[in-house]
Design a protein that fits this description.
Helix content is 22%, strand content 29%. The protein contains 7 helices and 15 strands.
Length: 242
């Protein structure tokens, strides 16, 4: 991460405004490698030096990477004046990094949502040129048939005339209510629902179960989240579409 001004580091971590951080520094509460630091302009190397506040070690990282099992009724947005957002579900210590959801899941859709402040990684995963696959589990009102599998494989025409790229549809259970998995490489508004409407069927439950190389951690309850492991972050960074 390299050199960073001590006041900027503390402010970024939510220890107060620049003015409040200056007061903290004046009070001799902050040490770098066991030496009291009072100068707000002093630079620290966060990868090599140890910063403490009142004796507690402060960990600083530039980026945060979170996996959430998004519940229904919550918006994939950073803020909203009327509705709870996925950022509202985060602990304050994670909110201070100002992360944002990577792409969106509809309000009534559950499942895997990545939340980060790494704009470069988000762009990689969302860029239409990258064609990163996303897989959904859905319950469909109506019998899903091999005819639908073929239609999705060729791409279907949505209500606004847009022709989708091919989607891989797997029938898990077919009947009056069908269980399916669908992998698509686009993220048009309400795309999965609209693809099924194009073949005369209705989605009654939708959950995203993977994005690129990353599957949803099934130990996460709805609304819970965790930090990605270093291995998972590397998987996303180095992911190449076959």
């Amino acid at each position: 991460m390299g050199q960073l001004r001590i006041d900027k580091m503390l402010a970024n971590l939510g220890f107060g405004s620049r003015k409040e951080v200056k007061q903290l520094l004046k009070s001799s509460a902050v040490k770098v490698d066991d030496v009291v630091v009072k100068d707000a302009k002093q630079h620290v190397d966060t990868s090599k030096q140890t910063v403490t506040l009142n004796g507690e070690v402060i960990e600083y990282k530039e980026f945060i990477y979170l996996m959430m099992n998004k519940p229904q009724g919550v918006l994939s947005a950073t803020e909203d004046s009327t509705t709870e957002t996925v950022i509202d579900l985060l602990e304050l210590e994670d909110q201070v990094y100002e992360p944002f959801p990577v792409g969106r899941l509809d309000k009534d859709t559950e499942g895997l949502l990545l939340i980060t402040n790494d704009g470069q990684l988000a762009h990689r995963l969302l860029s239409p040129k990258k064609h990163v696959p996303k897989t959904y589990f859905a319950v469909i009102d109506g019998e899903v048939t091999e005819e639908d599998v073929l239609a999705f494989a060729n791409g279907v025409t949505l209500d606004d005339g847009y022709e989708t790229k091919p989607g891989e549809l797997k029938i898990l259970k077919s009947g009056i209510r069908s269980d399916i998995e669908l992998t698509i490489t686009e993220g048009k508004f309400h795309q999965v629902k609209r693809m099924f409407e194009a073949v005369g069927k209705r989605v009654v439950y939708l959950q995203r179960i993977s994005m690129g190389p990353l599957p949803l951690d099934e130990t996460l309850e709805l609304g819970e989240y965790r930090e990605l492991t270093d291995e998972e972050i590397d998987l996303l960074r180095n992911y190449q579409i076959k």
